Amino acid sequence: MKTYSLDEAQDLIIGKLGTPRRDQFEFELKLELIGDMIKTARKERDLTQEQLGEIIGVKKSQISKLENNVQNVTIGTIMKVFSALKAKVNFRVELLNNEVNIA
């Protein structure tokens, strides 16, 4: 039985880095992590989805969708949510082998 490293298994199952299939997988994974972070921060602040929605001016259903990654969200909405949760957000953007950090 042949064994594979994690990188080899990811390449075989998800696709190699830089391929459209792998890029889509990585993008969806990051969205899922953002939803999980929103939910965790909201609960740590003892807020319901409805309360958080009221703070940023959206309905409870939109907060639920954010947490469950049902809809595409804008960076502006993400920033509003984390600002309301008093949470610091950092984005990392990679450009042609250069990194730009935005705090």
Task: Describe what this molecule looks like in 3D.
This protein has helices spanning 6-13, 20-44, 49-56, 60-67, 75-84; strands at 91-95, 98-102. By secondary structure, it is mainly alpha-helical. The protein has a single domain (6-102), classed as 434 Repressor (Amino-terminal Domain), CATH 1.10.260.40. It has a two-stranded antiparallel ribbon. It is elongated, with a radius of gyration of 17 Å. It starts with 5 loop residues before the first helix and ends with a strand. The model has no long low-confidence stretch (mean pLDDT 83).
Q: What's the arrangement of strands in the largest beta sheet?
A: 1-2
- Sheet-strand content, in percent, reads 5-15%
Radius of gyration: 17 Å
Report the order of strands and helices.
Answer: HHHHHEE
Number of domains: 1
How far apart, in Å, are the first and last alpha carbons?
47 Å
Number of helices: 5
CATH architecture call:
Orthogonal Bundle
Helix/strand structural class: mainly alpha
Low-pLDDT parts are none
CATH topology: 434 Repressor (Amino-terminal Domain)
Helix content: 55-70%
Question: Which features would summarize this protein structure in a list?
Answer:
2 strands, elongated, two-stranded antiparallel sheet, single chain, 5 helices, mainly alpha, 434 Repressor (Amino-terminal Domain)
